[in-house]
Amino acid sequence: MAHHEIENHDYDVLIIGAGGAGLRAAVEAKRRGLRVAILTKSLLGKAHTVMAEGGVAAAMGNVYSEDNWKVHFRDTMRGGKMLNNYRMAELHAQESPDRVHELESWGALFDRTPDGKILQRDFGGHRYARLAHVGDRTGLELIRTLQQKVVSMDTDVFMECKVLRLLTDADGKIAGAIAYRRPTGEFLSFTATAVVLATGGVGKSWKYTSNSWEGTGDGHALALWAGAELIDMECIQFHPTGMVWPLSVRGLLVTEGVRGDGGVLRNSEGERFMFNYVADMFRAETAETEAEGDRWYDDHSAGRRPPELLPRDEVARAINAEVKAGRGSPHGGVFLDIASRRTPEFIRRRLPSMYHQFMELAGVDITTTPMEIGPTCHYIMGGVRVDADTAATAVPGLFAAGEVAGGMHGANRLGGNSLSDLLVFGRRAGLGASDYIEGGARSGGLDAAIVDATIDEALAPFDREEGENPYDIQRDLQEMMQANVGIIRTGSELEFARTALEEFTERVANISVKGGLAYNPGWNLATDLPSMITVSKCTTLGATNRKESRGGHTRDDFPGPDAEMGKVNFVLSQPSGGGYESEVKAVPEPILEMPADLRALLEEAK
Amino acid sequence: MPDITMRVWRGDASGGSFVDYELEKVEGEVVLDVIHRIQATQAPDLACRWNCKAGKCGSCSAEINGKPRLMCMTRIDELPEGTVTVTPMKTFPIIRDLVTDVSFNFEMAKRVPAFNPVPEPEGGYRMQQIDVERGQEFRKCIECFLCQNVCHVIRDHEDNKEHYAGPRFFIRYAELEMHPLDTNDRRELVRERAGLGLCNITKCCTEVCPEHIHITDNAIIPLKERVVDSDYDPVAWLGRKILRRTKRSAADASVQPAP
């Protein structure tokens, strides 16, 4: 093993990821006067948070004064099919209004109500209009506001840096991380007392996804390898409305705001088919006729909500079923129609970036023509198991927030609840890490042998003359996962996927890369593939164990929910050593028991 | 017979040259798709920066047939027949291939005095839609830096980078100036240290903005007017003398408020 002399940086808190959760955590730790660094695989301000379009859910009651945190809590738990960590859902519902107001005091400019308050829009699964928004570019507003806040606090940001491994000390506490700079390929190590994971999602392991190249599940993998646990990894949200054509943009997100603002789904026969797919759980609150649904948009007391605004898992399954039954659109989706329902002016004002996106990429004018859409891999509800109040993981000093953390959304996330999740738990992770440090914990220093071994492993693809192209492995992995661990799953396919993933593990160990270290995307992908393989294994294992259908996990061979299964999380860990080639174990553990007063909220508001 | 020839600049700070790649045409593709296919099949080490592939993050800026554009929003079938040439942004130092060092912009961002609102009243801030819309136009900015790239003040004069913030930050200053809640006054700063006077409103920035922000008309010109008014308007000068300024001077504004 070669010894590598590399630059080292010493911080109190190392934040991995510069999306909403990472930036919000940084603000909190900086406020406590700690030495904070943010690492991001991209430039600052480019994180996937910018893709969030519709809004941030917070029960401020600006449009419907009946709204409050209790209703938001109930909606979140029901949307999550009761698999949620109730305490996270509770904190989230209680704290998100403060987090939104706080953004405003940092310069965010939300759309307004006539009396000058923050305007809120309707979204699937939310009983009241609850999403604070800026047109359909709310994520950009959120990330820019946080970015500007973090810059004004003089925070160190390491841009275009990829973390390879977290290091722990002899006591099992977090000690730091090892990374490399993408522009130069230089390796660097970080000594840090606390690490906050805020790395986002995993969608890049699927073929049709709304996620960017960054969504390779690095944080999920880093946590698992370092000894933390993952939960609910089988629960993946396929957003009902992704673009389906042209093929090159298949999977690109179309905001739920289209439906919130009056858009409806139709099949090739022109039928609003969602009326045929209302599950019993939602029947009492869903319109029975088109006329009733249409009245609701203007006044929520004049009718019940249209079924197009059911939670995302319900809508995605319905679209899937329509296409399967031969009632799809020419390119294999269904139609999302707002053109026949709202004026061109309204559409351009409320949905400017959707108008732009379809006009420029598909040549479709959404003010005159329905969009063709279909489900796309969008979000993982599962993630690192954390303590709700502190965002702490099972590894002392390691914290996780945002999409990389599991529990908050249960089996299915409601639209708008991710931006609020980032803010609420980003802040709590920053607080948790700061409290941990102020409690006297100190990094035990880095193990030089592990640093060297990690670098050797990262460089190995350059030495293999005859190995495989990482792009081929990525493409095959995406196709395999899409085909076998997609929106609808079945036992035999999952079994096939588990075997296939063993083969992928071997292929990753045989990657060959050409060129130099400096900004080499082939090599960068080679270092992302171990994370992608790890999360694919976790999702497949979770899906194999969960022999029921619930939220973002649908089994053809177990089509209904199972009461006993609904009481457990599948907890994944690597007891025999962390790494993409090591075995992952799944153990069912009971979900957190909800106190009676919260349980009562779910009952009374039915 | 290949359908597309892509002529891509390859190299690093020490120099480089064009390399031609021939591929088959696929319906509906944008330039970034073709670059990705080159990476996957012919040149895995071809460097390009990208993220969202939807025109929302502003990462994949480049010059396509000499025009500054986002690669993800430029459809191949909209370009003229023949070879498509892709080069990195000219104004920033090359890292590799299509990737440039845009840290100039992040340094300029650090110089912007932070938003400093009036104290929050009971029940939260109130603002009217018409008042937030002015700032919202500027906050559509995706920081692709194409406006910075095309601005001749720095594109053709490297030495101006020291004291010229560029169009991206002029809209940021304008946004803060027009923010209904902000109390900092950055007008002297914009004139003295951000080089607003160097802009001679040729509108190149506005032309290349993928978000169609009216950079020149809605930000730079009003900002120039405000700066000039504060300096030369005798009535305003007298008013300041008599009433004392309520907004802070540039010197104060450059001090960051405590977080």
Write out key terms for the chains shown.
heterodimer, A: 606 residues, alpha+beta, Methane Monooxygenase Hydroxylase, Chain G, domain 1, B: 259 residues, Ubiquitin-like (UB roll), Fumarate Reductase Iron-sulfur Protein, Chain B, domain 2, 2 domains, 5-stranded mixed β-sheet, 11 helices, 36% helix, disordered C terminus
Structure description:
The complex is a heterodimer of chains A (606) and B (259). Chain A is α+β, with helices and mostly antiparallel strands. Among the domains of chain A are: 239-377, Alpha-Beta Complex (Flavocytochrome C3, Chain A, domain 1), CATH 3.90.700; 459-590, Methane Monooxygenase Hydroxylase, Chain G, domain 1. Chain A contains 17 helices and 18 strands. Chain A has helices at residues 20-31, 69-79, 86-105, 138-152, 218-225, 257-260, 280-283, 290-298, 312-324, 344-350, 352-362, 417-438, 448-463, 470-484, 491-508, 521-545, 596-604; strands spanning 7-16, 36-39, 56-57, 120-121, 131-132, 156-158, 161-168, 174-181, 187-197, 230-231, 236-243, 264-266, 334-337, 371-380, 383-384, 398-400, 568-573, 585-590. In chain A, the strands form 4 sheets. In chain A, strands 1, 2, 6, 7, 8, 9 and 16 form a 7-stranded mixed β-sheet that branches. In chain A, strands 15-10-17-18 form a 4-stranded antiparallel β-sheet, covered by helices on one side. In chain A, strand 8 and strand 9 (187-197) form a beta hairpin. In chain A, helix 3 (86-105) packs across helix 12 (417-438). The longest helix of chain A has 25 residues, at 521-545. The longest helix of chain B is centred in the C-terminal third of the chain and has 18 residues, at 215-232. Chain B has helices at 31-41, 103-110, 129-139, 146-150, 152-155, 167-178, 187-192, 204-208, 215-232, 234-243, 250-253; strands at residues 4-12, 15-23, 61-64, 67-70, 84-87, 94-96, 99-100. The radius of gyration of chain B is 22 Å and the shape is elongated. In chain B, strand 1 and strand 2 (15-23) form a beta hairpin. Chain B has 11 helices and 7 strands. Chain B is of the alpha+beta class. Chain B has 2 domains: 4-100, Beta-grasp domain (Ubiquitin-like (UB roll)), CATH 3.10.20.30; 103-253, Fumarate Reductase Iron-sulfur Protein, Chain B, domain 2 (Orthogonal Bundle), CATH 1.10.1060.10. In chain B, the strands form 2 sheets. Chain B has a 5-stranded mixed β-sheet with strand order 2-1-5-3-4. A two-stranded antiparallel ribbon of chain B has the order 6-7.
